[in-house]
Amino acid sequence: MAANGSFNLDRNQKIVLSLCKHLSLDPKILSDDVKENDIKSLYLNILKSSGAPLNDNDEVMKWIKFAGCFPLDSNSCSGVLSGLNDDLAQKSVLLGNGLKPSEADVIVFAVLHPLLIGLPNAEKEKLPHVLRWVDYIQNKEDFGELFEKILLEKAKFEPQGATNTVKVEVDSDAKKTSQSTKIADKSQSTKSADKPEAAMNPKKRDAGKKATQDKEATQEKKKSSETEAVEKDKDISVSLLNIQVGLIHKAWKHPSADSLLVEEIDVGDAKPRQVVSGLAKFCNPDDLKNRRVVLITNVKPGKLRDVMSEGLVLCASNEDHTIVEPLLPPEGAKIGECISFSGIDGKPEDVLNPKKKQLEKITPHLFTDDKGVATFKGIPFMTCGGPCTSSIPKASIK
Questions:
Q1: Of 10, 65, 55, whose CA–CA distance to 383 is shortest?
Q2: Which single residue of 10, 69, 206, 373 has CA 20 to 30 Å from 80?
Q3: CA dihedral over 207, 210, 216, 219, signed as positive or negative
């Protein structure tokens, strides 16, 4: 605990100094706020001291939550950074208008910077968009005295407008060159046509036509493959699932199946959900009472051995399936809260379509890391209170 407290204090000092520079404040007047572990409270106190209007909209709070819950172990950290890299692929800053960094950018930068400094070069090379963003924030905010420079050789930031201008100029020149070449070719063809021995050979003409058709067919096939790949990625995105934090009010044995239990689970709706789970061999019904769980709530409702089930409790299992337990949300998680995955956005399906086998495509990518943190492709299951976990490391999740 002492080490973690030291980390929080050091982290908060960096956040205070960074935000004060961003807002042109004297950090000395906020010395007491450094002891505040909650980044949200720290941020709101600094804004209050600056006289700036309080900005507590959902997007700002989303990134403050991201900074506060950022994992410290290398495996989970790698997955989250990969998600952030994807998120930054199409934009210059996390929030804000155009190219101006927001307070959210400054806070996330202050938290990530020391972790990025310690990453091996091989790992840094996998994060070009994150490194470009870090370099841009550091230069834009003039953080040279506060943070060590992360040297970037390839990931150099260029304003989007400037990039487009260069591209337009290059495209224009290329177009002119192409047009000139076509005119020259046409002129040469006309001259050649005047000579009887240069008349077009039918065999050559047919061969050229076939080559053009083959090229067009290849391009069409490549385009089709790319479209199929995009559609496939959509099919396996965890954003299709509505995963929520639930609380089991009571559990009992299934009346006609020895391997099944029936649970009544509160997910924040007016009425609890009834869920049937294959946990009878692994859990005592009494032990599940008042236990927090993680469940998918947009599976198609249906009967399992004549008992209606309206969800799917996600459980971790060891390799030989001798130990199975429901995933455990942290104490700070709210009942009914939707699980989030850093860098992955998208609206869940209203109801999953069993014919598309969406769940079957996603679950192979669900597993716990070596610390027992539940992940999708290495990106943690996050709540407002932290990641969901299991006592079983390197487990499959279904």
A1: 65
A2: 10
A3: negative
Picking from 317, 268, 261, the residue whose alpha carbon sits closest to that of residue 292 is 268
Tally of residues, the chain = 398
With contact defined as beta carbons under 8 Å apart, do 15 and 39 qualify? yes
What tokens does 285 get?
Answer: 């019904």
d(CA 24, CA 188): 68
Cα separation values, 290 from 107, 146, 294, 338, 353, Å: 36, 47, 13, 19, 31
- DSSP 3-state assignment of 253? strand
Mean pLDDT by 10 residues, the chain (398 residues): 49 82 75 64 79 71 84 70 82 74 88 83 85 84 77 49 45 53 52 47 62 70 54 71 96 94 95 95 94 96 94 95 94 92 88 90 93 93 92 94
> Rounded to two decimals, what is the model's pTM?
0.50
Token digits of residue 169: 């100029």
Taking alpha carbons only, the member of 101, 99, 113, 104 closest to residue 146 is: 113
Distance (Å, rounded) from C-alpha 87 to C-alpha 79? 13
